[in-house]
Design a protein that fits this description.
This protein is mainly alpha-helical. The protein has six helices and no strands.
């Protein structure tokens, strides 16, 4: 759901499309001292319509940030946060089983963080190919399904990429 749809659902008053009094500097070629959300009055070109839509989303977003919280958010403001209960539980269980195997094998639950990211990329690719060759196949060493190892390697990659992105 877009911010505009959320605002409309909550009854936020927004200007109607095509009601701007401003002239579009892009189409009329003059410098404007006003906001970056100017557009043609009564003009129906796609660029102006898109800019006006963006302006409405901007207004809706600012209104929702400032306005009172909706009743269902007053006790716990979690709107916009990921609903982790939507993640299929089986993948979490599968990754946990692979992690327990790794912890027994390497003796350190955080050991995976010391491995170079390319090694996880290669391991994920190997398990992916093995899974494609035999969807019911298991890793020879652990006896666990290749798909579970693939999920675990991808989880490591997601975490490592997030940490890299946070550090840049």
């Amino acid at each position: 759901m877009t911010m505009l749809e959320k605002a409309k659902e909550l009854g936020v008053e927004l200007p109607a499309l095509g009601t701007s009094a401003a002239k579009c500097p892009y189409h009329y070629g003059f410098e404007s001292q006003a906001s970056s959300f100017e557009f043609c009055s009564g003009h129906t070109c796609a660029e102006c319509y898109a800019r006006e839509y963006k302006a409405q989303e901007y207004i809706a977003e600012k209104h929702l940030q400032i306005d009172e919280l909706p009743p269902d958010q007053q006790a716990k403001a979690d709107a916009g946060k990921p609903k982790l209960c939507m993640v299929p539980r089986e993948i979490i269980r599968n990754i946990a089983v692979v992690r327990e195997y790794g912890n027994r094998k390497y003796g350190d639950p955080e050991n995976w963080r010391t491995v170079e990211i390319d090694r996880y990329r290669n391991a994920a690719f190997r398990h992916w190919l093995a899974y494609l060759d035999d969807p019911k196949g298991c890793d020879e060493e652990s006896g666990l399904p290749h798909l579970w190892h693939l999920a675990c390697n991808i989880a490591f990659l997601c975490e490592m990429e997030a940490e890299d992105n946070a550090g840049t």
